[in-house]
Amino acid sequence: MTVLFEGEDMAAVRHAAMGLAKKLNCEEESACGLCLSCRTFESGNHPDIFFVKGTKAVGIGVEDAREQIALPITTKPFKYRYKIFIIEGNITPQAQNALLKTIEEPAPYGVFLFLAKNTFGFLPTILSRCIVKKIRGSEFVIARELAEKIADSVKNADIPKAFGLYKEVESLSKEELNEFLDALYVIYGKRRNFDAVDAITKTKQIISQNGNLQLAIELMLYKMA
Ligand SMILES: [Zn+2]
Q: Which one in 11, 55, 87, 193 has a CA-CA gap of 20 to 30 Å to 64?
């Protein structure tokens, strides 16, 4: 599988690509944040997820493409389902040509995630083999998506997953956290679950008073469930 994540906000692009990489190798297939795969990924030591970096001023050159992608993909993953390459930065046309065969006839365990502001720098031959995902907007998209994910897990009675997502909530900035709670407020308002709406309002108060975030969110999740 080859995916090109494209968007002006590189932080959001990175977040989306890392989320997919994490999910693909997650033992729960959900980017749970709790399994060994997710935890090793978060600590930056995942044996089957690689960050491809250019070593030349031009970015990722032919040698980089060969040494960091085309060659390592010929061996199976060390431990997990997929061998994933997260490829960010300018890739020379020569390097793209060197990757054509790898992408055209991918190993069944091969996943290539390209990260870019736009598609201009890519050869049509590469683009035609990519699933292009447009990542729009800002960090607030992440907060809103997280709210939806949590509300969905609660709805499907998948409480461990909802709690597992807590780690992602923890990584939000204060503004994002507010956006996240506002999104939850709207979702639960629509569901007419007023106990949850109450709990969300209380959580907002606790956070504005710099109270214990973890406790507030856990309580809120219990009320939502
Ligand atoms: Zn996991």
A: 11
Q: Nearest to residue 60, comparing CAs of 11, 116, 105, 108? A: 116
For residue 195, give its domain range: 139-224
Quick: pLDDT tens for 148-199. Answer: 998 988 888 887 888 888 888 888 877 788 889 988 988 998 888 888 889 9
Q: What is the pLDDT of residue 224?
A: 80
Tell how far the Cα of 163 is from the centroid of ligand 1, in angstroms.
12
Give the pLDDT score at 103: 95
Distance (Å) from CA 39 to ligand 1 centroid: 7
Residue appearing with tokens 């090109």:
4
Residues 108 and 53: their CA atoms lie apart, in Å, by: 23
**128 plus 146 within the same structural domain:** no
Whether 96 shows a pLDDT value over 90: the answer reads yes
Ligand 1 center–CA 41 separation, angstroms: 9
Q: How confident is the model at residue 33 (pLDDT cuts 50, 70, 90)?
A: confident
User: What distance in angstroms lies between residue 224's CA and the mean position of ligand 1's atoms?
Assistant: 23
Same-domain check for residues 6 and 112: yes
pLDDT at 29: 84
The CA 40 to ligand 1 mean position distance, Å, reads: 10
Q: Based on the domain organization, do 32 and 66 belong to the same domain? A: yes
In this structure, are 158 and 124 located in the same domain?
Answer: no
How far, in Å, is the centroid of ligand 1 from the Cα of 95?
Answer: 33
**Strands (DSSP E) along 27-165, which ranges?**
49-52, 83-88, 110-116, 131-134
Ligand 1 centre from 111 Cα, in Å? 17
Please tell me the distance between residue 25's alpha carbon and the centre of ligand 1 in angstroms.
Answer: 7
The two structure tokens encoding residue 23: 């999910």
